[in-house]
Protein: ATP-binding cassette domain-containing protein
Amino acid sequence: MITTKDLTKVYRSRGREVTALHGVDLHVREGEVYGVVGTSGAGKSTLIRCVNLLERPSSGSVTVDGVELTALPGGERAGRELREARRRIGMVFQHFNLLSSRTVQQNVELPLEIIGLDRTQRRRKAAELLDLVGLGDRARSYPSQLSGGQKQRVGIARALAGDPKVLLSDEATSALDPETTRSILKLLRDLNQQLGLTVLLITHEMDVIKSVCDSAALMRGGRVVESGGLTGLLADP
Ligand code: ADP
Ligand code: ADP
Structure:
């Protein structure tokens, strides 16, 4: 479902070069929860941002659901194909990235507005999504009235608005306490099972990997140093 081949990213800023990814090969199968773990600076965020082309890789390829995203025209003139492919990739963020001036429902409706659904369709879809994440009764609240876990549920509902086949999660539980973390991870697992959603998550916590992932990769210094099924990985000394 997600394949990266020889993915390399070099950042250039103020005359300095930082190679954040050195030829990363990743293979995430359809319907699995795949975790990428590593310490800060390992290249995890760069990797996940390259997967949905928020960041253009310097070289190598990214293929999601059979579409080679890196082969599609991007940048300012990002073509229809790339926009459509990206719509099928949901993204969840560490700090939720909700608009504080909009209600929960309006936050979830935002991507639906961009797709061009009319008001009635948007309402119905947003209500469905909020029910799915267990927030059906908070549609009219503002983000500031919610707990961290509830905010992340809104973030997840919004990420699901385009009916994605793939959900990318960038440290989705890092700002949450352990109990809330467990409930959000359980939600991701439930969505994975109910919707057949493929989940690629990055985290610096091995516990997150152990509790929800089917497979995982360990990154260090911009490279995948180990990967495979979770049982195999944990069996290693
Ligand atoms: P992680 O998510 O594992 O903490 P990152 O992908 O954020 O790792 O960072 C990998 C490396 O790339 C780090 O050395 C970081 O400083 C560098 N880096 C990340 N983003 C940028 C950027 N926009 N410009 C320059 N260097 C960056
Ligand atoms: P993370 O939690 O992923 O390690 P960071 O704090 O490293 O995040 O990075 C936060 C933001 O700053 C990211 O958007 C990243 O691209 C950018 N960034 C990280 N390192 C650098 C750098 N050395 N130069 C410029 N931007 C950077």
About this structure: The CA atoms of residues 10 and 19 lie 4 Å apart. The beta strands are 2-13, 16-28, 33-37, 59-64, 67-68, 89-92, 166-170, 198-203, 215-220, 223-229.
